[in-house]
Amino acid sequence: MHPENIAHWAKERGPRILLVIVAALFLLLFLRLSTRRIARTVVRSRRGDRSEGTGRADTLAFSFQSAARVLIVVFGVLLVLQEAGVDIKTVLGGAAIIGVAIAFGAQDLMKDYFSGFLILLEDQYQLGDLVTISGVTGTVESVNMRVTVLRDLEGRVHFMPNGNIDHVTNRTYAWGRPVFEVPVRFDENVDRVMEVLVEVAKELSEDPAWKGATIGEPDMLGVDKFTDYGIVIKFMVKTQPDQLFPVRREMLRRIAKRFNELGIQITVPQRLIVRDGPDGEPL
Q1: Residue 183 dihedral angles phi and psi, to the nearest 5°
Q2: CB-based burial of residue 224 (10 Å sphere; 0-12 exposed, 13-18 middle, 19+ buried)?
Q3: What is the DSSP code string of the chain?
Q4: Residue 108 burial (10 A CB sphere; 0-12, 13-18, 19+)
Q5: CA nearest neighbour of 111 among 76, 146, 82, 66
Q6: 156-171 tens-digit pLDDT
Q7: CATH of 124-170, one of 2.30.30.60, 3.40.50.620, 3.40.190.10, 2.40.50.140
Q8: pTM
Q9: pLDDT per residue over 222-280, tens digit each?
Q10: Does the domain formed by 3-105 have CATH 1.10.287?
Q11: Which CATH fold topology does 179-262 show?
Q12: Backbone phi, then psi, for 46, in 5-degree steps?
């Protein structure tokens, strides 16, 4: 190619190519500086009563930043080629074929990433939440764009691809609430039993060792049902998300101890087994 032609080409198309490159670099810089801040603002506005954290926002920001960076680079390269005089229709045709092949081969992976993005955006669960996913109950140890990691009570770790998650039960979203069903004998004074249960719950909330574990006053529902072995009294206590099971265990311990002190009997189902003796008479 003649030097004069190169000089003419550079003079004719060089400024526009340079402008495209500068614009792409500016967009990449703006994306890098603003994405995390925008993501954290969105997370704070949607979080409500849940504790503020940066892990979910940073994951969202990284995912959006990666996708946007690819788009900016691809469009920037196409615009540069167009300004350089290259027929981009041929390039787009080949890229489309390659893109379809990649999309077909990685559709499950893209499904995982898209589902993970929605899980993080909607704040369905976060680290430390107790959830049930696909019949597996455990504490969320990690959540990212592709996989959610649960650890069950026995310490087993379950890796759940986000694309396979179609139903989530979050037992500790913002707060927890253990429900107590206490069976007592028919001849017990139920009003007295309910007062004792409320008193035990209030003592727990006022205990310095359990300060802040419970939220508000206990909710006494009263007599819930009659059974073959006694009367069932139901009440609930609202707790912090990570205190549901500790509060439940401590409440049961205190209820058993107080009932023993006051002579209140907790009833359980009983089974009577009758056996025939050698002469056919029941023993």
Answers
A1: -90, 130
A2: middle
A3: --HHHHHHHHHHHHHHHHHHHHHHHHHHHHHHHHHHHHHHHHHHHHHTTSPP-SHHHHHHHHHHHHHHHHHHHHHHHHHHHHHTT--HHHHHHHHHHHHHHHHHHTHHHHHHHHHHHHHHHHT---TT-EEEETTEEEEEEEE-SSEEEEE-TTS-EEEEEGGG---EEETTSS-B--EEEEEE-TTS-HHHHHHHHHHHHHHHHH-GGGTTTB-S--EEEEEEEEETTEEEEEEE--B-GGGHHHHHHHHHHHHHHHHHHHTPPBP--------B-TTS-B-
A4: exposed
A5: 146
A6: 999 999 989 988 998 8
A7: 2.30.30.60
A8: 0.61
A9: 999 998 889 999 999 999 888 888 999 999 999 999 999 999 998 877 666 666 666 65
A10: yes
A11: Alpha-Beta Plaits (3.30.70)
A12: -100, -10
Q: Domain limits of the chain?
A: 3-105, 124-170, 179-262
